[in-house]
Design a protein that fits this description.
The structure holds two protein chains of two kinds. Chain A is 0% helix and 54% strand. In chain A, strand 2 and strand 3 form a beta hairpin. Chain A has no helices and seven strands. The chains are: A mainly beta, B alpha+beta. Strand 3 of chain A pairs antiparallel with strand 5 of chain B.
Amino acid sequence: MEHIVVIVRVQSPEGTPVEGASVSFESAVAVLPEIALTTGPDGTLEAKLPAGLTRVRADFSGLHTVTDINLSTTEDHHPVEIMLKLPPSP
Amino acid sequence: MVKLTSTSKPAASTETTTPEAAAQRYVQPGKSGTASADASRAASAYVRVGKSDAPIVPRLNQGGGVLETVIGPDDRERILETDLAPWRMVCALRLVGSGGGSAIGTGWLAGPRTVVTAGHCVHDQRFFDGWADHIEVSPGRDDQDFPFGTSVATRFSALNEWVANADPDFDIGCIHLEEPLGDNVGFFGFAALPADDLEHHLVNVSGYPGDRGNGRLQYFHANRVLHVSDRRVFYDIDTFGGQSGSGVWIKETDQSEPIVVAIHAYGTGGTPFNLGITANSAPRIIPEVFEIIQGWVEQDNAGS
């Protein structure tokens, strides 16, 4: 199965990097384990994910945001960047 | 036919289950440890015992599709008494890859120096480029409270079928501790039970999810087994990323100790469509896996 290198970037509502956010993945086309990766000091993390429809969710301090992305190989094989911006606190 | 062995980091056997072996019960008892023997009120209130003809929480497939692991309403309960048994035998894990990337997971003490978890918590090409570099193990963590401290481990093992093929049916691994944390904390019993014994059993799962407390708080849920295959057990228990590696445990009677029968690893996306159920799942402790876990515990007890 083809895997795509992704870089997930988690930002606060103000656009600053969020360190320690939990990021989980679910794929519509492949079996992924129930692991949660955590972002580093620059608010990013890297993973290799199977091509196809993938849900990416970031959680931090009770806030969360979700995006669905159809992962496919880029022409230049560069990593796919996924930006997740947390919503403001209610 | 699959031959299962343990593979260790950087490098450390059994036969495929025969019908005769699959029909037998293999049980290794646990121990409550030397820490407080106070009874947990949460255990009395939440832990489910025995079998049931009906689910505790009736569930319908509420349209979450394959991308959900909390099935319908979220029924997880936070555990506050994490310094009491059995909750203290559940460990919050911080996994660090060789490239510096990190993740959260869950493990459970199976012996004084042995924590069993999901295979992908110790070895995963997608997330760690192979073996984890080190793992921080915190039994019974509750936010910033570490009632039994944190042990940093660098020695890991996993089933060979996980390391070589990332086969979800064999997603089981082990963290070898330097310190005998389990002497004080206690450890779960574990068992390979025949499929008939697991059908309709009420099962309990407690772990450290990423969506509530970022892997720092322990959450619990229980429900009925929906389906048992040769190598997996399926249930509609609410879980989330970070709870991988949690023990899926049963209590056969009110008086009996908790016994782990499977290791939680997959959300609903890991359940084959042809089963026609919305369920999360765990690789079972089958007889060969039971022997391997026993071997891990014996190896750690011998101090090797």
